[in-house]
Amino acid sequence: MTEINSNSDQNASNAAQSGQSCGSNLSETERTSRNWSMFCHLAALIGLCINIVSLTFFLPLGFVGPLIVWLVKRNEYPSVDEQGRESTNFQITMAGLQFIFCLIPILGWFLLLPALLLFNIGLSIFASVKASHGEQYRYPFSLRLLN
User: Fold this and answer.
1) Engineered SS bond to 73: which of 29, 80, 92, 135, CB 3.0-4.6 Å?
2) Which long-range contacts (CB under 8 A, 24 or more apart) does 100-106 make?
3) Nearest residue to 131 via CA among 61, 64, 14, 31
4) Which residues of 76-91 are buried (b: 16+ CB within 10 A; e: fewer)?
5) What is d(CA 79, CA 69) in angstroms, rounded to the nearest whole number?
6) Per residue in 26-80, pLDDT tens?
7) Quick check: 106 and 27 in contact, CB under 8 A?
8) Are 70 and 80 in contact (CB under 8 A)?
9) Among 114, 117, 138, which Cα is nearest to 126's?
10) Under a CB-based contact definition with an 8 Å cutoff, are residues 38 and 23 in contact?
């Protein structure tokens, strides 16, 4: 175990000495593009937090944040155009399911809705991490409404 830790410490120190730490060789434009792509996915969490805090699950707001980021930044960065569209499509799909689950008493309120919210939060965080690394993420189970 100590040998593995010493090898990883040695690799980390070699990377630090050579200036190859995470993201240090990226241009400012690429870094900004990745940040905005990541924010497309994280913006959905703001709407979801508003839903959870205000207990307004019947009025899904998760798609509003990604939609705003996408509309404002899509012409500046191609990756933001793709990731914003992807995030908005997924959040619109989740909003439709959220609204339907709110109409189903007991089962929808106490089982389906919490499971859907956890699924949404988990995938939004996962997608934001992928976007921060410069990877294009496609959500599963998403209607492709915006092209």
Assistant:
1) 80
2) 102/57, 102/58
3) 31
4) ebebbbbbbbbbbbbb
5) 12
6) 899 999 999 999 999 999 998 888 887 877 776 788 899 999 999 999 999 999 9
7) no
8) yes
9) 138
10) no
The one-character DSSP state at 59 is S
Question: Do residues 90 and 139 lie in contact, with contact meaning Cβ atoms separated by under 8 Å?
Answer: yes
- How far, in Å, CA of 123 to CA of 140, rounded? 9
The CA–CA distances, whole Å, from 90 to 13, 23, 47, 144 equal: 40, 28, 13, 8
DSSP 42-101: HHHHHHHHHHHHHT-TTS--TTHHHHHHHHHHTTT-HHHHHHHHHHHHHHHHHHHHHHHH
What amino acid is encoded at 122 in this protein?
G
Return the structure tokens found at 17.
Answer: 């000495």
Query: Tokens representing 94?
Result: 């989740």
Q: Which pLDDT value is given to residue 34?
A: 96
Do the Cβ atoms of 136 and 83 come closer than 8 Å? Answer: yes
Q: Which two tokens stand for residue 19?
A: 């200036």
C-alpha span between 41 and 110 (Å, rounded): 26
